[in-house]
Amino acid sequence: MSEAGQSGLVVMKFGGTSMGSADRIQVAASLCAGEKRKRPVVAVVSAMSKITDLLLNTLKHAEGGDREGMEANIATLAKRHYDACEELLPESTRPVVRTGIDELVGDFRRIANGVLMLGERPVRSVDEAVAIGERLSALLMASYLQSQNVPAMAVNAREVIVTDAVFGNATPLMGPTRERAAAVLQPQLDKGILPVVTGFNGATADGRATTLGRGGSDFSASILAATLDAAELWIWSDVDGILSADPRLVPNARVLDLVTYAEAAELAYNGAKVLHPRTLAPLVSRQIPVWSKNSFAPEKPGTKIVPSIPNPTGPRAVTSMANVALVSLEPSSPELAGTKLMGRAFEALSASGAEVLALTSSSYRQSFCFLIRKDELASALQALESALSLELAHGYVKPIEVDTEVGLLAIVGEGMRGVTGMAGRIFTAVSREGVNVIAIAQGSSELTIAVVVRREGLEKAVRAVHEECGMGN
Ligand code: ADP
Ligand code: ASP
Ligand code: MG
Fold first, then answer.
1. Which ligand is nearest to the CA of 212?
2. Are 22 and 167 contained in the same domain?
3. Does the Cβ of 214 fall within 6 Å of ligand 2?
4. Is 402 part of any domain?
5. pTM for the complete prediction?
């Protein structure tokens, strides 16, 4: 196996919009083919845009016993891929690819029928079923490359990425994955074949299908880049790179030419959808650089994500998350110390799998509040209530308060370390817009300041901070 970067290998990941139609697949394929003339390429592909949502929605119909809704969705699924096949491929190769599409859609129907009969969606079946979106797009891309005389082969990441058994949000086992990548992908690369690997999915060591969480194809690509010792990872999306804010919220957001791993990870973790939060972790130890580029404007330079940048200055970007909830806990009796309550609460939260996004506490009343994702709220509350059932019943703890009308914004920049007055400026800018600040938290790295605001003021607050910090064009 080659040493880090020696192969010159580049992993290129194409997101849903970059795979969204025959035209887009042609562009993605030509970007791969162009690069392959210079060095080996592994492509990692997402499902065509909206297909993962369609698959999940189909399983919901099935679970609810709605056969008609299920079949209508499956027809849409098949048609979208037949149409792309028709547009992309010469007549001679279409029948084989149509058969491939039929088989995959058939696999999906089989699982959906099982869900229909059971009236429930076992997590394992969901993971196997949703990965079919990526298998369909990989089939189309590899077939198109072959039709252009570029040796290519669709690869199901289930054969390569080995994960734990946390279905729906699995974590890769890097050692076994490295062995599989060497056994499955390296021989193809050695023969000059371009593997087109499905993003998003993997399997446990004993072969049960898993997925890496929504938006997880970025993570698939970084896992493969790390385990194949790639020289670079390119993530192709529908924006010009990593911007100072989500361009959908802030029209004058600026493309950042260089971003550090730490900055990119903080941005992704705090809601910048352009990167899956776990993308950078596998790359750090090997220092593999990442490019975030726009497949709709490939000539633009994009953003380069690197281990460090010289002389970083001030805050660089602001990001936000709307689907969050603030949970507050307060002892109501001096017999229960705040730290004890915290300990119990966080143990329960950790068992429930919920992640704490921000935390603040007040020392006198010993109360504290923390922010979690809305989709983790139900299981977090259940865990808290059961861990604190006695204290709640005897009135040692006040009833748990939940506020779902909140949002999180995070201001990120290596150059904020040690700069005084940042939190004050942010507070003032947000308040000036009439938006109520509920809590401010700063991690010990001083790279990020997190601000919890009322939900209805979130977008306004993002624009105000972006303006105040002079982040835009
Ligand atoms: P893909 O399907 O290619 O994975 P995503 O939709 O997951 O693409 O991510 C790209 C989107 O991320 C952009 O369309 C943009 O609206 C959003 N986004 C949020 N924050 C940022 C940011 N700071 N910089 C760039 N894009 C951002
Ligand atoms: N198709 C998956 C999703 O929509 C994974 C991805 O696109 O990254 O979540
Ligand atoms: Mg994405």
1. 2
2. yes
3. yes
4. yes
5. 0.94
